[in-house]
Design goal:
single chain, 608 residues, alpha/beta, 8-stranded mixed sheet, 8-stranded antiparallel sheet, 26% helix
Length: 608
């Protein structure tokens, strides 16, 4: 029997700075789509909005016709250039009115999507990363350091990024290229960004698309350092430019996830070495403020992940993991100091930043003690009523005396994993934020990327045993410290998980809604993160196929706290283990269970 033909690769149109000339842009798109299409999507880089100041109640240029329904966007269109005089007002309204994060952006009007901040999403099988905004002094239309850090975290995940979208060109992209026939604007210094150069060096996409310089330039493919595939850079001109430079370009790349190793590693005859062989390191985003972190008085030291991995610390700084929990997965390979005396001070509620630096930047706002003497610890300690409870009574804060650290199996930078107390099955895992967050849904982007790495590792570990993971999380207004539960079930029962959750929900009088019909778990979580306002309770479960089922709780709705566990106990014919209190083990049994888990998990542990 003949094999089924492979699906045709997606066909994508690329466009440069629109500058508000949307009628001209979409007229050209319609023409190209009719003559050589159909195309699946249009990706716009560079300034999308008009540089002109419009009327107070209406946008300048052609945008009003599309927002008010007098004109239609012909194919799904995504843009990153969220700047211009009227962009902040229009986009703030769009963000406020948004009903969710459709795959790859916030819908502005039918078929028009704003790619905000930075992220990685799936577009017709293609892995697309983007950095919205431009380099600047912060505020609307400028990307932040958090946006950059989120992409750096994504770059460390397995897999190849097919397309990387930025507004500005990467500094140094012409290094090693044949510039004898390029337009002179290519060699002018304006419109280049060294931060983008760092990011593209780390992400190593197959295609890098940018705008802003007002000229079309297709660079020879270059070989990436420490990677076998090549990158093609394409810079696009402005829509309707007088020089008749090319502002729209078509590509049809096969997703890397479906390509053979030989095809991915094929090198074209005109390939060059990477233009970023020695890029500038750690270029700061000038004066770009970090997004304010929640729970800023938590005792948590955000040390540099890359310094830890590359061994750039001189050993004078304390290891937060060891100081707060008494253990560190890196052991003797850790580049930070493991100091027992500092550990004892930390247990007495002494500020970690004070221990590490000799001073604390929070000043009187800090809830922790700034002295090493016992007398000062007693004198300076906040009254119990003023002290955050997270350090004194939270089961999941690593620096809490109540944490059962012998159950911990892995500690990362933003998350750690522990075996459950009173487990449903011996390998029942809790994935827990290091910081005191009420839900994993509200965690910042970098820990979210680490969560994906932990889930990937657990998936491989369970698969080796012929099992697959079911994840669930319950969030209530009384939730203090989040924990995402991972329960392995036999592969033979995986197909029954969805049915039994729907049946259980129906019996209790509520409905579980599908968040991501395409089964992309990462996109499902991004959608959930964009929708959740933190003001209501929810329950969600991630099925073995990646589908997320969600129930948002009403303001007075009483929800069974053990719902997820009870459903899986029924699936596994373990009704007597539905209540964790019936499954308690001795500490010796728990320690043996942890040791057994670690032995099998160590080869997959992303923190090792």
């Amino acid at each position: 029997m003949a094999a089924a033909p492979s699906p045709a690769p997606p066909r994508i149109l690329l466009a440069g700075d629109a500058h508000g000339r949307l009628h001209q842009l979409f007229k050209r798109v319609k023409s190209v789509n009719q003559s050589t299409g159909p195309f699946n999507a249009l990706l716009c880089v560079g300034q999308f909005f008009s540089p002109e100041v419009g009327e107070e109640d209406s946008p300048p240029g052609d945008l009003a016709d599309y927002l008010e329904g007098r004109a239609a966007v012909p194919i799904p269109t995504y843009f990153t250039g969220d700047y211009g005089p009227t962009a902040p007002r229009l986009l703030s309204k769009a963000a406020a009115d948004a009903r969710g994060f459709t795959p790859g952006g916030i819908q502005i009007c039918p078929n028009l999507f704003w790619l905000r901040g930075s992220a990685l999403f799936n577009l017709h099988g293609l892995s697309v990363a983007y950095l919205s905004g431009k380099r600047g002094l912060g505020g609307p239309g400028c990307y932040s350091q958090d946006d950059v850090d989120a992409l750096r975290a994504l770059a460390e995940e397995p897999g190849i990024v097919d397309l990387f979208l930025t507004n500005e060109w990467p500094a140094g992209v012409v290094n090693g290229a044949d510039t004898s026939k390029v337009p002179p604007q290519v060699l002018e210094p304006q419109g280049y960004d060294p931060v983008v150069a760092e990011l593209v060096t780390e992400i190593k996409p197959r295609y890098h698309i940018a705008g802003t310089k007002g000229v079309f330039y297709s660079r020879e493919p270059y070989v990436n350092d420490s990677s076998l595939h090549v990158t093609r850079f394409i810079g696009l001109a402005n829509v309707g430019n007088k020089e008749k430079q090319k502002f729209i370009h078509a590509i049809s790349p096969t997703p890397a996830s479906t390509m053979s190793s030989a095809d991915i590693h094929a090198r074209p005859p005109n390939g060059t070495l990477s233009p970023y062989v020695a890029p500038a390191k750690s270029v700061p985003v000038e004066d770009t403020p970090k997004r304010p972190a929640e729970n800023t008085d938590l005792q948590y030291w955000r040390y540099d992940v890359k310094r830890q991995r590359q061994g750039q610390n001189d050993g004078s700084l304390l290891c937060f993991k060891f100081t707060s929990s008494g253990s560190c997965p890196r052991g003797s390979n850790c580049n930070f100091k493991h100091d027992e005396e500092a550990r004892e001070h930390c247990q007495r509620n002494v500020c970690f930043e004070f221990l590490n630096k000799g001073k604390c930047g929070k000043g009187p706002e800090c809830r922790f003690v700034h002295s090493l003497t016992e007398e000062a610890t007693v004198r300076d300690a906040k009254p119990r009523s003023d002290r955050r409870p997270v350090e004194s009574s939270c089961w999941f804060c690593l620096s809490s005396p109540d944490v059962e650290s012998h159950l911990v199996i892995s500690i990362g930078d933003g998350y750690y994993c522990a075996l459950a107390k009173g487990p449903l099955v011996p390998e029942h895992v809790l994935v827990i934020p290091v910081e005191h967050f009420p839900t994993t849904i509200t965690m910042p982007a970098e820990p979210e990327a680490e969560l994906r790495r932990y889930k990937n590792a657990l998936g491989k570990y369970f698969e080796k045993q012929g099992k697959t993971a079911v994840y669930f999380e319950w969030v209530s207004q009384q939730s203090r410290h989040a924990n995402l539960q991972a329960v392995p079930v036999p592969l033979s029962k995986a197909a029954s998980v969805e049915k039994i959750f729907h049946l259980a929900a129906k019996r209790l009088g509520f409905e579980l809604l599908v968040v991501n019909p395409d089964g992309d778990a990462n996109q499902g979580r991004e959608l959930l993160r964009s929708q959740y306002d933190g003001k209501s309770g929810l329950f969600y479960v991630e099925l073995p196929d990646g589908t997320l089922l969600l129930h948002m709780l009403g303001s007075r709705e009483k929800f069974p706290a053990q719902f997820g566990r009870e459903v899986l106990a029924g699936l596994l014919s373990m009704a007597d283990r539905a209540d964790w209190r019936n499954c308690k083990l001795s500490k010796e049994e728990e320690i043996k269970m942890v040791d057994d888990f670690k032995q099998g998990f160590c080869e997959f542990d992303p923190a090792e």
